[in-house]
Amino acid sequence: MDGVLSQEEINALLENPDGLDAMSEGSEVLTDDEKDAIGEIANISMGTAATTLFSLVNRKVEISTPVVTVATWDDIVADYERPCVFIRIGYTVGLDGSNVLVLKEKDVKIITDLMMGGDGTNTDGELGELHLSAISEAMNQMMGSSATSLSSMLNKMIDISPPTSDLIDMSDSAKAGEIDEFLQGEFVRINFRMEIGDLVDSTIMQLYPFSFAREMYNSIAKNMEADIGGDDMSIDTAPAPQAAPAPQPAMAPDQGQPMMQGQPMMQGQPMMQGQPMMQGQPMMQGQPMMYQMPYPDPSMMGQPVNVQQAQFTPFMSDFNPIQQKENIDLIMDVPLEVTVELGRTSKSIKEILDFAPGTIIELNKIAGESIDVLVNGKYVAKGEVVVLEENFGIRITDIIKEKIN
Fold first, then answer.
1. Distance (Å, rounded) from C-alpha 390 to C-alpha 392?
2. Angle, alpha carbons 85-90-94 (nearest 5°)
3. Which end of the chain lies in a sparser environment, N or C, as judged by fewer CB atoms within 10 Å?
4. Which helix (H) or strand (E) is 339 found in, with range?
5. Could you tell me the residue ranges of all domains in the chain?
6. Under CATH, domain 31-226 is a member of which superfamily?
7. pTM of the full predicted structure?
8. What is the DSSP letter of 343?
């Protein structure tokens, strides 16, 4: 060492003053509590991400319980296939730092093929920019949903920047620094087993810098302390129980028996319809609760009920169609969207991705056929294209009256 502590080492020393000897040897240590907390956070986050991936590939996605360890770049090179796709996710709000997700090249090809409508078997050829762009978009949605889960767990707003993906050979250790600085030393490695239908049964890795992992752990610990402190405060500040008032008899309308205030209800005893529940009266476990009426039922009290036939206002046939048409003036100034449709066609995702300047797209209209005019998406007329000075226009040739009516 050159005698100068990095910011990461200073932060670690402030959190654990007894760890100076360990840092002087160039090693980092995670406690069992930190491993458990980081693993639980990763488990919930990747579970949410798996749900998002399912919606993208339309295949069942399962991600196993994570395994948290401390690793170096050499450990990654020794344990993982080469080349791999490294996806860097930076946090812009709520957390300071980034993490890296590592996927095998074949797994990326399968996922991107499924996203493009394939069956996941089109994995021949080299992994190109199209694959990297597609997996970046998939990770953007997956880690975006994961950030939402983190926001709930850490009780603060968390947001990410768009992920960046690169195919890394890993044979050159200098590549580690190009991906992220923390990969040049020790870092936290989280291994997951990922299954996608019967196409993928593989291992993926999530790599954290120690500062980032400990920040998440400290946020979880603070939230737990705040919850415990809040519960203690509610107990300490709760008002002292008051002495129960003297029992007062109350006549039950169904049997004429007095029910004492504070008298417990026996287990299995039903509450009679129309019987008021007295203040402070506990309900025993297993007791069925019947509908409680706010007032006694007159029929149960034996009182006569005054029943009258419903009276309705007579319907007057005073509809005036002329007046109805005049009311349309009230909406004459409402703007509507007018669209002129030259034609339509349908293409597969593969065909759309092959579009380039100069590509000709055949429509379902014959040359010279009338053009459709739509108002708010509804066909109202047909016409022909004209040129007005330097602008295109359309001359209405036919009104589709049945559509308007």
1. 7
2. 150
3. C
4. strand 338-341
5. 31-226, 330-404
6. CheC-like (3.40.1550.10)
7. 0.51
8. -
Which candidate, 158, 216, 217, 212, places its Cα nearest to that of 181?
Answer: 212
Print burial letters for 145-164: b (CB count within 10 Å at least 16), e (below 16).
bbbebbeebbeeebebeebe
Contact criterion met (CB below 8 Å) for 208 and 46? no
Cβ pair 288, 240 in contact under 8 A: no
What superfamily would CATH give domain 330-404? SpoA-like (2.30.330.10)
* Structure token digits, residue 151: 């926001």
Half-sphere exposure of 104 (CA within 13 A, CB side): 17
Do residues 274 and 252 make contact, with C-beta atoms less than 8 angstroms apart?
Answer: no
The residue assigned the tokens 């294209």 is: 385
Residues with Cβ within 8 Å of residue 16, at least 6 apart in sequence: none
> How would you write 257-295 as a 3-class SS string?
CECCCCCCCCCCCCCCCCCCCCCCCCCCCCCCCCCCCCC
Q: Are strands 159-160 and 84-93 parallel, antiparallel or unpaired?
A: antiparallel
pLDDT per residue rounded down to tens, the chain (405 residues): 445 556 666 665 566 554 444 444 445 678 888 888 888 888 888 888 888 888 888 889 998 888 999 998 888 888 887 789 999 998 888 888 888 999 999 999 999 989 888 888 888 888 888 889 989 988 988 888 888 888 887 788 888 888 999 888 877 777 777 888 888 889 999 999 999 989 999 989 999 898 888 888 888 877 777 666 554 444 344 444 444 444 444 444 444 444 444 444 444 444 444 444 444 444 444 444 444 444 445 455 555 666 666 666 665 555 555 555 556 676 777 888 899 988 889 988 988 888 888 888 888 888 778 889 999 888 899 998 888 887 888 889 989 876 444
Q: Where are the beta strands (DSSP E) in 170-233?
A: 187-196, 200-208
Give residue 326's identity as a one-letter amino acid code: E
Tokens of residue 255, six digits: 């049997």
Q: From the CB of residue 292, how many other CB atoms can be counted at a distance below 10 Å? A: 12
